[in-house]
């Protein structure tokens, strides 16, 4: 995430992590770390109200967005300098994180809090639901649609017009040729559901 910010933006960065025990007071010996809810609330109240989600899966990202907005924080979008997001994109939801070398093609629409990791490609007329996580190098091809909070593994390909239900998980390297029901995990080429007994 740091790599996706400008030098001026990096000067203002403060991290938040209340999950990892025994963290130092600074990340990389430089960036202050807020280690508790109380510290984060205090920081938002007295200084800059903006926050970005950084990395993490859909559930964590959504929880943090709701929590920080509840404390008066302003959910903010980040876009790396090398990302190509053209003027004809249908929409980019607030709080999206668009990492280096991402392509978002014309008429594509990104929901609130979407994470597009490095090198992901979202082609024309694709819809990516709120809080979806699209991993490095994944390809979402023309007009496919992802419901909210889906996870697409690294280098996976979703073929044109395919519809992915909410909370579905696409395994790394999968090629998705058919619609995927909500909450289903699929893997392989062509992608097939992971059997419950194997989970
Ligand atoms: C699909 C996925 C979510 C399954 O995770 P899981 O439920 O913990 O599954 P397991 O690791 O227990 O594997 C279950 C079975 O599926 C197979 N499997 C897991 N992931 C697979 C994949 N991507 N493609 C093909 N088979 C896969 C395993 O080999 C295993 O098979 P087996 O029972 O015959 O040994 C996960 O493996 C995956 O691909 N995640 C994406 C990771 C990613 O891209 N992260 C990006 C971070 S930036």
TrEMBL record:
It comes from the Bacteria. Pfam families: Hexapep (PF00132). Keywords: Acyltransferase, Amino-acid biosynthesis, Diaminopimelate biosynthesis, Lysine biosynthesis, Repeat, Transferase. InterPro entries: AcTrfase_PglD-like, Hexapep, Hexapep_transf_CS, Trans_hexapeptide_repeat, Trimer_LpxA-like_sf. SUPFAM superfamilies: Trimeric LpxA-like enzymes (SSF51161). Belongs to the transferase hexapeptide repeat family. This is Sugar O-acyltransferase (Sialic acid O-acetyltransferase NeuD family). It comes from Hymenobacter artigasi.
């Amino acid at each position: 995430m740091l790599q996706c910010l400008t030098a001026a933006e990096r000067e203002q960065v403060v991290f938040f992590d209340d999950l990892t025990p025994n963290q130092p007071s600074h990340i990389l010996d430089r960036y202050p770390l807020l280690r508790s809810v109380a510290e984060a609330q205090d920081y938002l109240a007295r200084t800059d109200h903006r926050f970005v989600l950084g990395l993490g899966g859909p559930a964590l990202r959504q929880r943090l967005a709701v929590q920080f907005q509840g404390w008066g924080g302003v959910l903010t979008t980040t876009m790396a300098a090398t990302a190509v997001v053209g003027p004809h994109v249908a929409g980019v939801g607030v709080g999206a994180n668009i990492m280096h070398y991402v392509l978002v093609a014309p008429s594509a629409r990104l929901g609130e809090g979407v994470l597009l990791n490095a090198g992901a490609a979202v082609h024309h007329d694709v819809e990516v639901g709120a809080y979806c996580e699209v991993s490095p190098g994944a390809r979402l091809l023309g007009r496919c649609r992802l419901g909210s909070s889906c996870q697409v593994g690294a280098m996976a390909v979703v073929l044109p017009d395919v519809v992915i239900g909410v909370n579905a998980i696409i395994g790394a390297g999968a090629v998705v040729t058919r619609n995927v029901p909500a909450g289903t995990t699929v893997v392989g080429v062509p992608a097939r559901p992971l059997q419950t007994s194997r989970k």
